[in-house]
Specification:
By secondary structure, the protein is of the alpha/beta class. The chain is 27% helix and 9% strand. The protein has a 5-stranded parallel sheet with strand order 2-1-3-6-7, sandwiched between helices. A two-stranded antiparallel sheet has the order 4-5.
């Protein structure tokens, strides 16, 4: 039997059944490394998200250049850019806008453009990335800045650059809110840790579906459960720092601070989470942390491979008390490495047991 909506000529799909669209634009200043990184996610994987394999996840349609290989911005089996124009006309409700790459300042030159995505049919000229952001951000349910370039400007925004590049919060404003009242969600990394991104996207999708509370963010708009601790706090080499044992060359298993590791001050979970499927991660495989998840990256962390400011003082102090700690622990280690004296054969019981009969 036909429903009332069908009898009236309305489509059978209800508003509740309409998919949540994810518009991913990687036309900022970037290397597409964050897109490539997401393909390595396992907790959950991008396939699980797109195919709706997670319980309670709303049905979604992802418009992402990396996987829409049949389409080009203006040609192919489908006109990929049309989804963006639909969002601009208010025909995609709701949608999540994902930005990859830093946003250049298009107003500092007389002509030309720094980066764009598709053409404006009204003028035939390229649509700049910043204009897409101007058009779509006010209409989006949520805006996600992916990777350090999009979150804080990253490498393209370092001192001396000619583009005036900046992160999405710098462009829209740090107090900006979406029409759903959501702040910009920043998931930094150069490139991003795969599961950090997939987990954040899933959280937002559940939130849009009314199954999760407001996403908790720190003052730099990062998810607190992912960026609430430093690299050092989760590092397997942290115990060596505490004992004042530092590597002097690569390949040694001890603390990497003297080789230039910024782990004690950088907020990132890669030492605990690993890189892919729980494996890898910079210090975990012997690489120093260069602070790529931080707003000050890269300017405030250069030159790389030099001992960080304060590192000499802290490592010197650590070395001094670490020497004492190691000697004391050597004594303890020797005592606990031997069995108690009462474990022996013979006619005498020396365990301290007292008979009560």
């Amino acid at each position: 039997m036909a429903t009332a909506a069908e009898s009236a000529g309305a489509p059978a799909e209800t508003a509740e059944e309409a998919p949540l669209h994810v518009l991913w634009i990687n036309a900022g200043l970037s290397c597409d490394g964050d897109s490539v990184s997401l393909t390595a996610a396992t907790q959950p994987s991008i396939e699980e998200i797109v195919l709706g394999a997670l319980p309670g996840l709303p049905r979604i349609q992802v418009h992402w250049p990396l996987i829409d290989f049949e389409c080009g911005p203006e040609q192919g089996a489908d006109t990929f850019i049309e989804w963006w124009w639909k969002a601009d006309r208010g025909e995609l409700e709701p949608f999540v806008l994902v930005i990859e790459g830093s946003i250049p300042n298009e107003s500092i030159k007389a002509e030309g453009y720094w980066c764009g995505f598709g053409n404006n049919p009204m003028t035939g000229q390229p649509m700049t990335t910043s204009e897409w952001l101007d058009r779509l951000a006010p209409k989006a349910t949520a805006v996600v800045a992916v990777g350090t370039c999009a979150t804080y400007g990253g490498i393209h925004a370092m001192a001396g650059n000619p583009t005036g590049a900046m992160g999405v919060p710098d462009y829209l404003g740090w107090d900006w809110k979406s029409k759903a009242g959501l702040p910009i969600v920043c998931v930094p990394g150069c490139p991003i840790q795969p599961d950090n991104l997939s987990e954040t996207l899933v959280y937002l999708l559940y939130q849009v579906a009314g199954q999760a509370p407001m996403i908790p963010l720190d003052d730099q708009l990062r998810p607190t459960w992912l960026f609430g601790a430093t690299v050092h706090e989760g590092c397997d080499r942290g115990g060596y720092y505490e004992q004042g044992q530092f590597a002097t060359e690569y390949g040694q298993p001890t603390c990497l601070v003297k080789l230039g590791c910024w782990g004690p001050v950088v907020k990132c979970n890669v030492t605990k989470r690993g890189w892919m499927n729980g494996m890898g991660g910079c210090p975990n495989v012997g690489g120093i942390c260069i602070g790529c998840t931080m707003p000050g990256f890269p300017d405030k962390f250069m030159p790389f491979m030099d001992e960080p400011p304060g590192g000499k003082v802290s490592s010197t102090v650590s070395g001094a008390y670490g020497t004492v700690v190691r000697r004391l622990r050597t004594i303890t280690e020797k005592t606990v490495d031997k069995e108690p004296k009462w474990r022996h054969t013979g006619r005498e019981l020396t365990t301290g047991y007292k008979r009560n009969w």
